[in-house]
Amino acid sequence: MVDRQSAPLGQVSDFDIRLLRIFKTVAECGGFTAAEVSLGIGRSAISLHMSDLEKRLGLRLCQRGRSGFALTEEGREVYQASLTLLASLETFRTEVNALHQTLRGELNIGITDNLVSLPQMRITHALAELKARGPEVRINIHMTPPNEIALAVLDGGLHLGVVPEINRLASLEAMPLYSERSLLYCADSHPLFDVDSAALDSACLARQEAVVPSYPLPPEARACHQRLNGCATASDREGTAFLILTGCYIGYLPDHLARPLVEAGRLRVLSPERERFTTAFVTVTRRGRRPHRVLEAFLEALAAQP
């Protein structure tokens, strides 16, 4: 039973920070069982640590039982406060590491989904060079929608983001990275798969049920999607691919993502001369950011890529 009348929290110890890290992982995984793999400890140990933290804080942080796992209102607030604390600790560690010649610390990157199949592997090569320079550097990649990446870079949760160049914010610095081409596709089970190309005019395509993105798009891409009969949405390009492969929808995909499926006979390109658009990608960092040797080393490696 948590004692809500306990004295206010005093000095935060190393043990408290360890408990907060465990709590953060449990909250993000959605329960004790789901957090076992991430934490490398068993459910009983996680439960014990969570009980210790609740006693230490004098607050009930989560509900757990037959009805499932859920954070309490206090738990949600403690989770947000723990993010602030742990981010501050990382900032402190990064700034102290800057005093040393050895490259240490973390690099937190947010990347829009399904860029790994691009022929230009500038991100991959730059990360490899960063690890060669600093073997102790810890790299954390988060696959996140573009608008969430920009916000996370602004609030310091991410050091760098890789996003489409859309509505660039004045508080973010952008560096051109590469472009990708998107084409319109249908699956082998879709009625248009075997239709003669000459019959695939704008009116025909506009009658088909289509999947459209639920995230912001550059003007050229937005204009192409507005011509479609949007009947389903997807939060990322992989979700779009899933829906196209049902055979119920047509939709746009990056050509590098779709190429293996086209070669396997599972997708067909529809009117590639007309139904296409190009998306420019950039890296974004916070303008006026504090010195961060790991980030600067990565940006240098990225700028040096052909």
From TrEMBL:
GO molecular-function terms, A-Z: DNA-binding transcription factor activity; transcription cis-regulatory region binding
SUPFAM superfamilies: Periplasmic binding protein-like II (SSF53850), Winged helix' DNA-binding domain (SSF46785)
Keyword Protein biosynthesis: no
Source taxon at top rank: Bacteria
Keywords: DNA-binding, Transcription, Transcription regulation
Transcription regulation in keyword set: yes
HTH lysR-type domain boundaries: 15-72
Residues making up the signal peptide according to the UniProt record: none
Pfam families referenced in this protein's UniProt entry, alphabetically: HTH_1, LysR_substrate
UniProt family annotation: Belongs to the LysR transcriptional regulatory family.
Name assigned to this protein: DNA-binding transcriptional regulator, LysR family
Organism the protein comes from: Modicisalibacter muralis
